[in-house]
Structure to design on (228 residues):
């Protein structure tokens, strides 16, 4: 039946080159061993070595994340596996937090981003055009679906991190409206306002080869020099 199934891959991560690294991480998790990881974050120019206690692996949007108690940071953190360059397992065991649970750890997130604090009520209104699509999915364990008389839908969630929910709301364009909290509504409105400003003037396309000022002959003509 394999030829009759297809999975779209808009953003798949290839972990074949990291197969040994993944094996080492799984061993460290299973054996509860303190581990050094060489990690290059998205904004870092150089990799940094962190001493961590690996607790689990999470798959989010086709990417893998290591959840670990980072002794270097003094807290439990996520590390994107694609950005881990080296893994060294020490002989020293660690004791995981007695009350740690992966599901509970992500209970306040709409993905993998973590923020401390109490959950806040998030309310999003969806138009009738996308209401059925939204109602067909389980987006979060806390979700409540409130059908509206116009065929639309209000989705309620309780989250501690709003970073990923903002991008999700924006992905629906005019078919989604962030109602609460006020901070989320203001952030979404700010992004949409900036986007509108970009479309308030005609698009300007730079011809290929002129991104840095054009060819040598074109520069010469502008300066009045006859090219050889």
């Amino acid at each position: 039946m394999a030829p009759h199934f297809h999975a779209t891959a808009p953003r798949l991560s290839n972990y074949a080159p990291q197969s040994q690294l993944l094996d080492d991480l799984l061993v460290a998790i299973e054996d509860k061993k303190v581990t050094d990881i060489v990690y290059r974050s998205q904004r870092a120019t150089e990799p940094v070595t962190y001493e961590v206690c690996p607790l689990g692996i999470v798959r989010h949007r086709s990417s893998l994340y290591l959840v670990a108690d980072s002794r270097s940071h003094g807290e439990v953190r996520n590390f994107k596996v694609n950005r881990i360059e080296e893994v060294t397992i020490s002989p020293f065991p660690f004791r995981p937090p007695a009350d740690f649970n992966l599901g509970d750890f992500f209970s306040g997130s709409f993905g993998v981003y973590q923020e401390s604090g109490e959950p806040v009520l998030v309310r999003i209104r969806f138009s009738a055009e996308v209401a059925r699509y939204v109602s067909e999915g389980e987006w979060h364990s806390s979700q409540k679906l409130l059908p509206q008389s116009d065929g639309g839908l209000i989705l309620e969630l309780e989250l501690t991190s709003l970073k990923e929910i903002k991008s999700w709301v924006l992905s629906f364009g005019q078919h989604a409206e962030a109602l609460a909290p006020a901070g989320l509504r203001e952030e979404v409105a700010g992004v949409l306002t900036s986007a509108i400003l970009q479309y308030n003037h005609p698009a300007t396309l730079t011809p290929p080869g002129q991104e840095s000022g054009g060819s040598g002959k074109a520069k010469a003509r502008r300066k009045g020099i006859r090219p050889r």
The beta strands are 33-39, 48-60, 63-70, 75-80, 84-93, 120-126, 144-147, 153-159, 176-180. The longest strand covers residues 48-60.
